[in-house]
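Query form — protein Maleylpyruvate isomerase family mycothiol-dependent enzyme

QUESTION: What is the three-dimensional structure of this chain?
INPUT:
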Amino acid sequence: MNSSDTPGRAAVAPAVHRDAVATQTVRFVAALDGADLSVPVPGCPEWTLRDLVRHTGSVQRLFSLLLRRRVQEPPASREVELRLPADDGGWADWLTASAAEAADAFAGTDPDAPMWAWGADPHARFWMRRMLFETLVHRTDAERAVGLRPVIDPVLAADGVDEFLVNLPFAASFAPKVAHLRGDGETLRFRCTDTAGDWLVRLRPDGFGLAPQAAAPDSADAGVEAPAADLLLLLYGRLDRGADAVETVGDEELLAHWFANSEF
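ANSWER: The structure tokens for Maleylpyruvate isomerase family mycothiol-dependent enzyme are given below.
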């Protein structure tokens, strides 16, 4: 399933995802300038900024390897040659090199090439899009860790909300609590207030997923509205739903159930 096939919003082209990986990495690296890499990361309990950099660069390198190999089934191993820096002074350059590996992998890959993917879209573009939002969200984590206020482009943020909601039903292998997102037809509506983006999630006895927008979407059992950037950070657990920018309506127990079990 491509994002253009989902009911929430219009698609963002894979070329935008590819370019944005580079841009988001540049902003991540900028946040490291002069930073103490031992500081804790608010969005990632028990991680230091050093851990965050290593994770983000490792993901970029792993996804790049998967793209180069055009994997057609789950890889037997996720080990990849990381070539870690010798000391803390090398982490920024190492992350920059990780993004360069991604750019090289993107350049040689047709985004429409069939590939194994753990999510809804079994094509190379899945990994390009997934890499972007791994990088973007962790860029905001790094900025918060060093006392900066993150800014996210609303169009990219809305695309990130779409990517999250499209793929969450497939994430049980590493996010086991999503198996608890079951119901008898209850619906939750997620809407961006500053750009296009409106999604309806339905809980079923056998699972959950995006549903076509009903004729009267306001009739959802519960709803969340926020600017796209805030909605993205809320879904990723970086913002509390009691924040000023977030408006919730409807069944509070249903909302609590969703956010307690939708950790990505």
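ADDITIONAL NOTE: The first strand starts at residue 187 and ends at 192.
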